[in-house]
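About this split. The held-out portion is used to measure sequence recovery: a designer receives only the structure tokens and must propose an amino acid at every position. Recovery is the fraction of positions where the proposal matches the reference. Here is one held-out target exactly as it appears in the evaluation file.
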């Protein structure tokens, strides 16, 4: 990104965080801060504790536990909590959602002429954030394990041609710093060459840095994670060691045959990361003494070439879905959001019917 785009993006993510912190700190148990009837849910009967709220400040995806009783699920579903649909709160982030180069990046990575909304969230990390263990995402799907799910429950190594035919999800992560490389999916993703720069200029330390295993996506395996280790993140070295002992053991790169590696990738501020469904990744702890990490993710789906079906837009807030259905948005937005409501396009899938599909997202 050009310096001016970086500046605007950083300002937008800071504004998202400011708004999010404001909403988190509000009293949700009255109608003063949140118009619950407009969200079609009862006013919460439970309240987040001061400690739970404090944990959520300065970052994203740390407001826990979410439930119907405390209003968390409704706030996420509707994107009223800014971190879960930042583009609905900060104009610049709606601009980047539809930026021609962003859409082209999705098309390139998915190898499709048409792309559709997946999700878009803040990935900000507060100082001292423990990071995220190794994990992978499927096609951000409905969990039923059929072909449309692009193998979410399927641990077979897929034929590369079959992989390319399946409908995948592309994830673009934009960071204030510590960002990494673009996976060139359409043309040479099977070999993964030139994914990393020869000289990672802009080396800035590992705080909040993303890690990835090139080639792991071809296994179509959402078990590419360290969840068996328990709920606590145990640190980069042990995370990697556990991955090598575990999921990576006996798994060569499906195309090159070379051993796959855990890689910490670092690039200059303003870089974008892009990876496709099932790529194993994790996030380093964020330094306790630093400024934290500003980041957001933008997911897009491509159609399954065999069926033409696209995953349902998993996290488009109902208000935006309604606007797209009524064609009240610009044409490009109506089309990009069409998988949130067009069940012919999605093969009958409707993400709003499946709360489980909202759980394992960035
Ligand atoms: Fe992830």
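Reference sequence for scoring:
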């Amino acid at each position: 990104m050009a310096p001016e785009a970086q500046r605007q993006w950083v300002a937008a993510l800071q504004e998202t965080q400011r708004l999010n912190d404001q909403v988190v700190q509000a009293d949700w148990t009255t109608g003063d801060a949140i118009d619950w009837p407009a969200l079609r849910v009862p006013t919460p009967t439970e309240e987040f504790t001061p400690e739970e709220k404090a944990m959520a400040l300065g970052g994203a995806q740390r407001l826990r536990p979410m439930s119907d009783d405390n209003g968390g699920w409704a706030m996420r579903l509707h994107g009223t909590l800014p971190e879960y649909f930042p583009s609905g709160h900060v104009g610049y982030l709606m601009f980047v959602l539809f930026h021609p180069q962003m859409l082209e990046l999705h098309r390139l990575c998915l190898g499709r002429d048409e792309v559709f909304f997946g999700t878009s969230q803040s990935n900000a990390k507060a100082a001292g954030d423990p990071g995220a263990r190794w994990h992978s995402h499927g096609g951000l799907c409905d969990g039923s394990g059929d072909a449309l799910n692009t193998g979410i429950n399927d641990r077979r190594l897929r034929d590369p041609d079959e992989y390319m035919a399946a409908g995948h999800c592309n994830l673009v992560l934009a960071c204030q710093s510590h960002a990494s490389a673009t996976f060139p999916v359409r043309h040479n993703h099977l070999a993964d060459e030139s994914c990393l720069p020869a000289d990672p200029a802009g080396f800035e330390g590992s705080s909040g840095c993303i890690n990835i295993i090139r080639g792991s996506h071809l296994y179509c395996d959402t078990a590419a994670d360290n969840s068996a280790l328990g709920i606590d993140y145990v640190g980069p070295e042990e995370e990697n060691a556990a991955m090598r002992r575990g999921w990576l053991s006996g798994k060569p790169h499906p195309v090159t045959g070379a051993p796959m590696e855990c890689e910490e990738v670092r690039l200059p501020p303003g870089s974008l990361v892009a990876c496709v469904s099932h790529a194993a990744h994790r996030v380093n702890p964020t330094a306790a003494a630093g400024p934290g990490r500003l980041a957001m993710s933008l997911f897009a789906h491509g159609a399954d070439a065999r069926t033409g079906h696209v995953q349902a837009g998993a996290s488009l807030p109902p208000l935006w879905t309604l606007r797209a259905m009524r064609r009240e948005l610009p044409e490009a937005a109506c089309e990009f959001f069409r998988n949130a409501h067009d069940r012919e396009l999605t093969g009958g899938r409707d993400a709003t019917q499946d709360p489980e599909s909202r759980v394992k997202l960035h």
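Annotator remark: Residues 135, 137, 281, 362 surround fe (ii) ion (CB under 6 Å).
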